[in-house]
């Protein structure tokens, strides 16, 4: 019985760490997005920002031939 309890404890602790990391990343991303929007707004106000549409072509390498 003890190894099972230890396994459960480790698993729960691991899941807690993952949730904590996910929450931290979510918060950092939210702050980054807010700062980006503020910078864009300031640049637009100063006439330093211009929206450009671009087209990109993505080619996938065939890993089997490598």
List the helices and strands and how they pair.
Elements: H1 2-45
Would you give an account of this structure?
By secondary structure, the chain is mainly alpha-helical. It has one domain. The chain is built from 1 helix and no strands. The longest helix has 44 residues. The N terminus is likely disordered.
* Bulk shape: flat
Helical region count? 1
Strand content: under 5%
**Radius of gyration over C-alpha positions, nearest whole angstrom:** 23 Å
For the record, give the distance between the C-alpha atoms at the N and C termini, rounded to a whole number: 50 Å
Give the proportion of residues in helices.
Answer: 55-70%
């Amino acid at each position: 019985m003890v190894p099972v309890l230890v396994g459960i404890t480790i698993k729960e602790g691991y899941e807690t760490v993952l949730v904590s990391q996910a929450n931290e990343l979510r918060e950092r991303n939210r702050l980054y997005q807010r700062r980006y929007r503020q910078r864009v707004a300031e640049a637009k106000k100063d006439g330093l920002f211009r929206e450009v549409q671009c087209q990109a072509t993505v080619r996938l390498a065939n890993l089997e031939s490598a």
